[in-house]
Amino acid sequence: MGDENFKELLRSLPVFFIIGRERSGTTLMRTLFDAHPNVSIQVEFHFIWHMYHKYHRKKRWTRQQLERFWQDLTRLPRYNLVTLHRKQLKQSILSLEGDCDYATLCKAVLFHYKSFFDKQEILILGDKCPLYSLHIPYLLKVFPDARFIHLVRDYRDNILSMLRVRIESHVFSALAYRWTYYNQRVRSAIRSSPDQFISMKYEDFVSHPEEKLTDICTFLGIPFVPSMLEFHKKRDAFISVYPRRIVEHIHKSLFQPISAEHIYRWRKKMTEKQVKLADAIAGSEGMRWGYSPQFTGKSRSIKLLFWPGIAYGRLYYTWGAVVSRLPLGIKSRLVFFLARSFGRKWPELKIMQDE
Questions:
Q1: Domain ranges, residue 103
Q2: 174 close to 310: Cβ distance less than 8 angstroms
Q3: Percent helix, strand and coil across the chain, each rounded to 5?
Q4: What CATH number is given to the structural domain containing 63?
Q5: Does residue 171 sit within a domain?
Q6: CA distances (Å), 223 to each of 10, 148, 190, 234, in order?
Q7: Quick check: 221 pLDDT over 80?
Q8: Confidence tier at 80 by pLDDT (50, 70, 90)
Q9: What's the predicted TM-score (pTM) here?
Q10: E-strand spans in 280-322?
Q11: Is 184 a member of any domain?
Q12: What is the DSSP string of 197-210?
């Protein structure tokens, strides 16, 4: 395919995003669409947002500038967790010299994701990233016609799941606040562009997966393919590439058929005090998404418990907003430094493909 033909192909491909709070079914949804033969959708990479402030205004590129874009891409914190056709991607990026916007470059990255599933003609590009729930206005500036699949999960189950995998804060009240904040931001974006969003409760989805998945495919303008629901059969391929901690601890459910057996676990797993705290912080927002708090009202003792966590949660997002505005190189180095300082390391793939 010639350079101009490839550029036109990228421009013609629509884009969708899977958003929602972490541990709300976003990874399950991404895997289901990865199993679709006409969809190319990456694992969580964050690159569109990380590189936005440096590159989103550019409309024309020299080869040297495209080389710099490639180098910046490879230095992002999660780059080594993404299976990409790397040689082909670099060649494709360098072929976009001349008139080309940031959206087209981003599409080139999405197009070259190396899936475990067999692919046919790609009809749509996707990206799953819970963090994008907080940056929807920026995504719409890059992709004005983008579509969004928003998953929301009962805030009490979401908190329990976050505490179990320990991928973020272990402060109960902070997790309740973050669930609230994420869904408030999504709700605000939906008010501005309602036709570009489909929101779905995780509990409804896992209870009626084929029906709900068909609805989402219709929303995206692609056919539902029954083999999407056989995603779990790729377990061996996944294990051959990804670290055991990710496979067995964080995403164990991806290697089993969809089941509703784990919904509303909070009813048995949470103490009364925890439920009161979760309801006090997230109950009001939860009702907007169809979740009923068990307790109403906020006692003085509960208020004393939740304000430190809320303050911590707000500080976390304020700090994130400041960091996001830093120059790309400084931002990447700072993220790596903080990860090492707090004992966190992004795992690398067992097999670095197409280097």
A1: 3-341
A2: yes
A3: 60, 10, 30
A4: 3.40.50.300
A5: yes
A6: 20, 17, 25, 22
A7: yes
A8: low
A9: 0.89
A10: none
A11: yes
A12: EEEEEHHHHHHSHH
